[in-house]
Structures are given as C-alpha cells and as structure tokens.
C-alpha cells in the first residue's frame, strides 16, 4: 500500500468517526437499552460516499469524569481482564510513568483514535464501539511503591470460603485493567496496546477473556443470560435508584481522599459445572435459582422485575422459593441490605482433559466497601446456597479503582503524587 493510500484510509476513517459527535448521545442511549435498535444506521453514507458507522460502532464513552468508565456503563459484548505485577526493582517512579502512558493511550483508544507509536492497526476501520478501559490497584501495589500508609482498609484480604478452589497464579496482582467493547477487534487492540505500553515496568500476571450477548441480538432490550441459561442481573441496582452512589462509589472525606469517586472491584473466576447442571430437570434448576428460567420471574409469580414473595408458601406448606434458593439467599434484605453492582462477563476456555467445558462467569462486582458488599453476601451463600453444588470459584482478586481523572490528570495521580 502506498503512502497516499494510507493517508486516504486514515482520512476516511476520521470522517466516519465524525458521526460520533453528531450521534454519540443516541448511540450511548441505545447501548444502555441493549436493544436491537443498537444496529440502526446513522445515515445513508459517510462524507466520502461510504457507509456511515452504525450506533454500535460510533458509541463513545468518555474517559474523564467523576468515576472511571466501565462501572456503570452497560456491559459490552467482549471483555478482557488482565492483572500485572510491577517488575523487580520498579517502584513509585516507574508506576507514575506507567499510569501516565496507560491513561494517555486509554483516552485515545476510547475516542476511537490510533494509540500512536507501534499501533498494530487492528482497529483501524472501527469506531470506539463503547470501549472502556478501567484501572485498579491491588493491595501489593502499595508496598511495592512505598505507599503502604495510603492503602485503604477496604483492601484487606477477602476471607476464605468453603467453595474456593483458588489458583494463586490466576489471583491477585499489583495492577488490574478491565477492557470492554462491543467489537472483539477493538477490545483485542486495547488489550495489546495496554500490554505493549507496560514495557519493562510491569509484566502480565494473569489474563482472562470474556463475552456477553451482542447489542441488537434480541428483538427488544432484556437482561442477559449466563451460560446456565438463566436470566442474570435482574436484581442489580440501577444508577437511578436512591442511594446507588453510596453503595457503589466511595464518598469524599474518607480516610483516603484519593479514593473519592472510586470503587472496589471483586474479581472472581467462577467455573460452572455445566454437565452436572444440564442433567437437572427444568423444575429442579428453577428451584435452585428461585426464578423461572423462561423469563427470570420469581417462582412466586409476576414478571422478571416483580419482587419475590419470600414468605409465600405452597399447598404443601413449604416456601415456594426454597430456603436454599440462590435468589433468596442473595437478596439484600436477607443480608442486612448488602448491595453491590454486578457487571460480569461469561467465559469459555475450551474443553478440559476430562471432557468437561472450562466455562463459566468472570464475576466482577463493584461496591464502596467490599466488607459491606461482597463479603457478607458470599458468606451467606457459602453456608447454604443450592447453586454452590454447580459452581467452583477458581481465582480471586480485589482492587481499589480510583475515581475518574479530571482534565490534565492521569488515573491514580491523586494517589501517586499526593
């Protein structure tokens, strides 16, 4: 390809991306709904006569703001989770330079722009596609950078649970990056760029790939299903709910001011024992969950959004929603009001040596304090959740995710330069 051809390609691409400014708000609204309308074409054609980007391609999430992107936005179709450890000898100085580099390329990529340098061009023809890049710090990061005095108490190690079968090599980490996009190549491009920009400062500790239903795959907006076929996410708190910010984000004025507007992410790789699950009759599967498989409605009746009647009993005098049903045990009212925002990806890593699928959920939950969110709920589930027989927690991590960067800031600057 000649230099002039390359220049023309880049000019055409930027013209296509010009639709973001005109229709970005519509794209975000459709992405939030997750409906089939997400594939509506913005116009008859681009300025150069080519097709305009669809709203899926043009949807752009801001990099800067009170909170980092990738927390309250609708779940994307493709995701990558990757943890890094700082290299031997690397400390605060190297961490500052790394977070500057990562923030710079994340802002470019989320705008649908090339990252510069040795950009591989994988996403050359695509728009932003709702790309989000989110950064977090593990407990070990604070020791490595001489910032132990600024490590939040909320980062204390998670307790052990009886269902844990954790692989230390796929757990924890100094740094964490969550990448999500509605296009697989855009997500992969971001992953490769983040890894490349780590340079000699940090090395990958573990990396996991996930997916969700694509925007527009269903005839109307609906809650996604997990690999067990269950509607998953019905009870998630919504940003419009009273008290949402207090449950999910750290309020200003705490012991660690640099975490204001931030959140804590619990990350768990949960393998689903699908062969065992699929042997269960439908009625038994629904009893395990406490909801109908067809539409996610509670067994006590209504629609998906109907509140379960946990006191309702059947003709036999037994609770309609069994005492060990997942929906009952995980309900906030059964856990002292403990609330967390779940934003997972499904995963499938092939077939194991025993012939069973290595598949399940990359569980990610967000809360202002995991000691009041994830931990009490998981303790309750650990003591008697019927679903526990069909899942296995194989990796675990906890990260402090600082608030979004203001203009001129990089992510984590209020910690690293305070």
Structure description:
This protein has 12 helices and 9 strands. It has 418 residues and is α+β, with helices and mostly antiparallel strands. Strands 5, 6, 7, 8 and 9 form a 5-stranded antiparallel β-sheet that branches. Strands 2-3-1-4 form a 4-stranded antiparallel β-sheet. Strand 7 and strand 8 form a beta hairpin.
What fraction of the residues are assigned to beta strands by DSSP?
Answer: 15-25%
Which class best fits the helix and strand makeup? alpha+beta
Termini separation (Å)?
49 Å
Tally the helices: what do you get? 12
Query: What profile does the largest beta sheet have?
Result: 5 strands, antiparallel
Range of helix content = 25-40%
Mean pLDDT: 88
- Give me the strand/helix succession: HHHEHEHEHEHEHHHEEEHEH
Rg, Cα atoms, Å: 22 Å
Question: What is the number of strand segments?
Answer: 9
Q: Unreliable segments (pLDDT under 50, ≥5 consecutive)?
A: 1-50
SSE layout and pairing:
Layout: H1 3-17, H2 19-33, H3 55-58, E1 78-86, H4 92-110, E2 132-137, H5 139-144, E3 175-181, H6 184-198, E4 202-211, H7 244-248, E5 263-272, H8 274-279, H9 282-289, H10 326-329, E6 341-342, E7 345-351, E8 357-367, H11 374-384, E9 391-401, H12 413-416
Antiparallel strand pairs: 1-3, 1-4, 2-3, 5-8, 5-9, 6-8, 7-8
Helix pairs in contact: 4-6
């Amino acid at each position: 390809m000649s230099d002039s051809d390359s220049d023309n390609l880049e000019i055409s691409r930027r013209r296509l991306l010009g639709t973001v400014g005109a229709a970005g708000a519509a794209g975000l609204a459709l992405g939030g709904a997750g409906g089939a309308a997400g594939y509506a074409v913005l116009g008859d054609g681009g300025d150069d006569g080519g097709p305009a980007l669809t709203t899926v391609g043009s949807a752009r999430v801001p990099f800067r703001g009170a909170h980092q992107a990738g927390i309250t936005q609708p779940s994307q179709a493709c995701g990558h989770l990757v943890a890094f450890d700082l290299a031997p000898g690397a400390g605060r100085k190297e961490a500052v330079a790394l977070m500057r580099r990562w923030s710079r390329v994340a802002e470019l990529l989320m705008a649908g722009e090339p990252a510069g340098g040795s950009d591989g061009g994988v996403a050359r023809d695509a728009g932003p596609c709702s790309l989000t890049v989110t950064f977090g710090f593990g407990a070990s990061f604070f020791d490595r950078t001489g910032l132990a005095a600024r490590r939040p108490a909320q980062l204390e190690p998670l307790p052990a649970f009886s269902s844990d079968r954790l692989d230390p090599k796929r757990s924890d980490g100094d740094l964490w990056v969550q990448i999500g996009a509605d296009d697989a190549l855009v997500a992969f491009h971001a992953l490769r760029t983040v890894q490349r920009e780590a340079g000699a400062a940090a090395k990958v500790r573990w990396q996991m790939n996930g997916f969700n239903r694509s925007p527009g795959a269903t005839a109307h907006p609906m809650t996604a299903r997990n690999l067990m076929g269950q509607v998953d996410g019905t009870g998630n708190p919504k940003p419009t709910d009273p008290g949402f910010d207090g449950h999910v984000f750290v309020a200003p004025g705490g012991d660690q001011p640099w975490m204001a507007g931030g959140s804590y992410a619990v990350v768990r790789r949960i393998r689903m024992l699908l062969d065992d699950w699929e042997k269960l009759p439908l009625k038994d599967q629904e009893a395990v969950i406490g909801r109908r498989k067809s539409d996610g409605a509670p067994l006590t009746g209504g629609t998906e959004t109907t509140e379960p009647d946990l006191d309702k009993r059947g003709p036999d005098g037994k609770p309609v929603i069994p005492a060990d049903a997942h929906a009952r045990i995980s309900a906030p009212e059964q856990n002292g009001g403990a609330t967390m925002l779940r934003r997972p990806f499904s995963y499938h890593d092939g077939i194991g040596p025993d012939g069973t699928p290595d598949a399940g959920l990359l569980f990610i939950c967000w809360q202002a304090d995991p000691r009041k969110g994830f931990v009490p709920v998981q303790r309750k589930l650990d003591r008697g959740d019927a679903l526990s027989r069909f899942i296995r927690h194989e990796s675990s991590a906890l990260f402090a995710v600082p608030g979004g960067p203001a203009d001129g800031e990089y992510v984590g600057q209020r910690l690293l330069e305070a």
